[in-house]
Design goal:
heterodimer; A: alpha/beta; Dihydrodipicolinate Reductase, domain 2; elongated; B: 512 residues; alpha/beta; 9-stranded mixed beta sheet; 7-stranded mixed beta sheet; 15 helices; 18 strands; binds NADP nicotinamide-adenine-dinucleotide phosphate
């Protein structure tokens, strides 16, 4: 490779990725890294791969990994693919992220960054998978739209597949592919758009612990979810979850998508009709509110832009609940860390998925 | 009415809204443990909406003064820090109720107050009574709760009681307490706190044993030579602790409850299910199978007690136990105890379980070590004295929670030399996130009606039966004289007699 070609295939801010090493020497160089200082402990519970086809993401992802390794010891593999360059090439860098645990022990996690150009799927896969730590699960975070690299021979090897559907342009098509993989190989999917709804769901659930609120559920007339437009899938997931848990079925008649959100209609177990909507609010919090109304009562969980708490409210005549609770992070790294802490196979997400997909496809029906 | 939105959100039983009444709410336990635990549940969004907390104590205080006191300590000790906004909501849930434990009118007023809260909440009246007072008041509190009708479950709502340690001082007093409790609350509504069971690592013992196929086939006398449970503390009688401790001692304070609980988790058979009674049925069988040291001779042979004399801990000189503040200068209370226990079951026949607990030992550590029999003495082990030590599996309960396994390995080189090596798993290294405090988990479990991590009546009584024999052996061994009390220098690992206890079996204490 001549100098100019090398410049062309270098990722932005490569200096933040550690030491560049030849791919064939990655493991040996990592070992040398440890030999320098034996006071540090090397830890890992998972293989965490972050894949992106956007230039500049390698350095940004290295920062994300630094954050995540505070709570989750892992071997991190950063993969950046530059699709604009045709020539097939692979470059790699290694580094370690170290943190003090309880103020004393320095615990470090290894990171290998790959910068790939050109298209040679098999070669990339093999390069990457050769550097997994054996026996530990592989959590694979695919950032951005799915490309041709997302195929069975890749996802078959993944234990948890992390996406953020709020990044996607054509959500219907992209989710279609994800769903096919779920059906085909039982892929465990963790959509950060779903993680973002966690504390809203927790807050709604805890408000319905209230007896008066619980009694009001049967009479629900409307559910409104407010999101900022980028987070539409979070809004739909939250609504789908609500409908699924309440035992509602999708009713066929009202369909509307006016570009400011969508309107839907559900039928309750008792045969009542509920109007539901996901409304966009410009400049609002990713998820701004869920509001459930029945006769004379209103249950609301809301958040200000940048607010550090969720506001939980239940208002009926002579009975008011007004509390504050925790909120989901606006940062992906923290969302992923939270998701990893919760563990499990995401059964609630799987349960919600059909309703969510049906809301996504509503327009087409 | 069940809440459909709770389903699946957390994979355990669901805590229900209730009013928590804490008896002894101006005390240390409430300020340091209970309120911070409830607050941290609120911060994590785990506390059900509608929980109210009433602090019951003698002193005259307004709600505001009571809350301010709680807030001050919460700032200091809360695991997740102190957030003014969440605290603001949280403290609105807290009220103070002034009354003597013995004052019937106070309970009548309490009942009215609870009814008013229920009405406000929409009619549901779950109640959780937490008795955080000295044990001499248990009777008073329970009897008055009964007279005021507060013990009754009504309209599908529950009424539960949580009782703190010490649960009795011997079998007779524990039985008495159990009777008083059970005259007021059914056993299914009685939750006896043993905070060791709320610790993450203690819960992990069952997971380690029963979710990993490699241990259980070896978990018996054929492969295991001995088991050791060590609970070492470097502290002595700081902060006036001597007054309480001198009446209690290591055996009753730690062994009867926490350490026998750990022993039963290690030695139990796999339960048929993970229900509270499924697990506790198996645990109690272990305690019931303990060989009883029911004569002074057996006690002398199998139990060593000791006190520390002046010495050095962590580089500081410290006084001997009898010189400590609020301790009787002629005290015969043990600050150290080592026991050899035999679990007479098919599985454990012939395997000694050694327990040791002591104050003023070199460091703070609670650990369980399972010592496997060495591999047969052929091949590598043929050279005597080289590798006759078997594998050791260590479960560290605190402070540095984790699991390690000692194995034998070849030393690199052209000759065949073998040395033990250690495979070590530290929770804190792998999971950066701190575990919740034991009280958080336990309070939530009580609100959810899950008693798995609480001690059942028969467990407590069986444990006392075992302990009582030893106490009797010590204190009335015939003509009113006491069995000997060993001594060790503070900051050392206990008396020689404790070493001799294991040497008789050809074993020695593990070095920590
Ligand atoms: N502290 C701990 O960390 C801890 C740990 C495990 C178990 N425990 C157990 O928990 C229990 C409480 O411990 P603690 O340290 O919190 O005790 P503490 O600090 O001595 O508090 C005792 C409480 O009981 C109240 N009280 C005493 N006599 C009363 C009466 N006649 N009427 C009404 N209230 C009365 C006191 O109220 P006033 O202040 O108003 O007099 C105070 O609130 C004990 O059984 C202890 O063994 C404590």
């Amino acid at each position: 490779m001549n100098r100019s070609e090398e410049m062309m295939t270098a990722p932005e801010n490569a200096e933040l990725l550690g030491v560049e090493v030849p791919v064939a020497k990655i493991e040996r160089k990592l070992r040398e890294l440890w030999e320098v200082d034996d006071a540090r402990a090397n830890a890992s519970l998972i293989n965490l791969a972050l894949y992106s086809e956007e230039n500049g993401d390698l350095a940004r992802n290295s920062e994300i990994v630094r954050e995540i390794t505070r709570e989750h010891a892992c071997r991190a593999l950063l993969i950046g693919r530059d699709v604009s360059v045709e020539k097939v090439s692979v470059r790699s860098w290694i580094t370690a992220h170290c943190h003090l645990v309880h103020g004393k022990k320095s615990v470090c996690c290894e990171q290998i960054a790959f910068h790939l150009t050109g298209t040679s799927r098999g070669r990339f896969r093999n390069t990457i998978f050769a550097h997994l730590q054996s026996d530990l699960p592989l959590v694979f975070w695919w950032q951005g739209n799915l490309s041709g690299m997302f195929n069975e021979s890749l996802y078959r090897r993944i234990d948890r597949f992390v996406i953020d559907s709020s990044d996607w342009g054509d959500v219907v098509a992209q989710y279609g592919r994800v769903n096919a993989a779920i059906e085909e190989v039982g892929l465990v999917v963790q959509d950060l758009a779903w993680t973002r709804t966690y504390h809203f769901r927790l807050a709604v659930a805890s408000l319905y612990d209230d007896l008066v609120a619980a009694r009001s559920l049967v009479g629900t007339r409307s559910v409104k979810v407010v999101v900022s437009e980028q987070y539409r899938t979070s809004g739909l997931l939250l609504l789908a979850w609500f409908a699924e848990m309440a035992g509602w079925e999708r009713a066929q008649d009202l369909i509307e998508d006016d570009g400011h959100g969508g309107s839907y209609r559900f039928e309750t177990r008792e045969g009542g009709l509920v109007d539901a909507s996901v409304v966009f609010e410009e400049g609002g919090a990713p998820i701004g509110m869920i509001e459930v109304e029945s006769v004379g009562v209103c249950l609301r969980v809301s958040r200000e832009v940048g607010g550090k708490h969720l506001h939980h409210q239940f208002i009926s005549e002579g009975h008011v609940v007004d509390l504050h609770g925790p909120v989901d992070s606006d940062f992906r790294a923290e969302l992923l860390a939270d998701q990893l802490s919760r563990g499990g196979k995401n059964s609630l997400f799987k349960r919600t998925l059909p309703t969510f997909l049906s809301l996504l496809h509503w327009e087409g029906s | 009415m069940s809440n459909p939105f709770r389903e699946d959100l957390v994979s355990r039983s669901r805590p229900e809204a209730c009013t928590v009444v804490i008896f002894g709410a101006t005390g240390d336990l409430t300020h340091r443990k209970l309120i911070p635990a409830l607050y941290n549940l609120a911060i994590d969004g785990e506390l059900p909406t509608g929980v109210k907390i009433i602090g019951f104590a003698r002193r005259d205080k307004s709600d505001e003064v009571f809350r301010d006191g709680l807030k001050e300590l919460n700032r200091e000790v809360s695991r997740n820090g102190h957030d003014e906004e969440i605290w603001g909501d949280f403290e609105n849930m807290v009220e103070y109720h002034q009354s003597e434990f013995q004052d019937a009118d106070g309970y009548r007023r309490l009942a009215e107050r609870l009814d008013a809260i229920d009405a406000e909440r929409g009619g549901k009246g779950n109640r959780l009574f937490y008795i955080a007072s000295a044990p001499e008041y248990f009777d008073d509190v329970l009897e008055h709760l009964k007279s005021a009708g507060l013990n009754e479950s009504r309209d599908g709502c529950w009424s539960r009681v949580i009782v703190e340690k010490p649960f009795g001082v011997d079998l007779a007093s524990a039985r008495h307490l159990n009777e008083v409790v059970n005259q007021t609350f059914e056993e299914k509504d009685t939750y006896r706190i043993d905070h060791y069971l709320g610790k993450e690592t203690a819960q992990n013992i069952m997971v380690l044993r029963f979710a990993n196929a490699i241990f259980e086939p070896l978990w018996n006398s054929r492969y295991i030579k001995q088991v050791q449970i060590t609970c070492a503390e470097h502290l002595g009688m700081e902060g006036g602790r001597g007054g309480y401790y001198d009446k209690s001692g290591a055996l009753r304070d730690m062994v009867q409850n926490h350490l026998l609980q750990l022993l039963s988790l290690v030695a139990m058979e796999p339960p048929t299910d993970l229900s509270a009674d499924g697990v506790r049925d198996e645990k109690v069988k272990v305690i019931r199978s303990l060989r009883q040291w029911d004569s002074p001779e057996l006690v002398e042979e199998n139990v060593v007690r000791a006190q520390y004399s002046a010495g050095h801990v962590h580089g500081k000189s410290v006084v001997g136990y009898r010189e400590e503040d609020r301790v009787d200068p002629e005290s015969m209370t043990e600050t150290y105890v080592a026991l050899r226990c035999m679990v007479d079951t098919w599985r454990w026949s012939g395997v000694p379980f050694y327990i040791r607990m002591g104050k003023r030992l070199p460091k703070k550590a609670t650990e369980i070590s399972v010592h496997f029999r060495p591999a047969p003495n052929v091949l590598f082990n043929a050279t005597p004295g080289e590798t006759d030590e078997g594998n050791v599996l260590v479960i560290r309960i605190q402070p540095d929670e984790g699991i390690s396994l000692r194995m034998v390995s070849k030393i690199p080189g052209t000759t065949l030399r073998l040395e033990p090596v250690k495979m070590d798993f530290h929770y804190s290294t792998s999971f950066g996130k701190g575990s919740p405090e034991a009280y958080e988990r336990l309070l939530l479990d009580a609100m959810a009606g899950d008693a798995t991590l609480f001690a059942r009546r028969d467990e407590v009584e069986e444990a006392w039966r075992f302990i009582d024999h030893i106490q009797r052996g010590w204190h009335d061994s015939g003509e009113g004289d006491e069995l000997s009390m060993a001594e060790f220098v503070a900051g050392s690992w206990g008396p020689e007699e404790a070493d001799a206890l294991l040497e008789k079996d050809g074993n020695s204490w593990r070095r920590l």
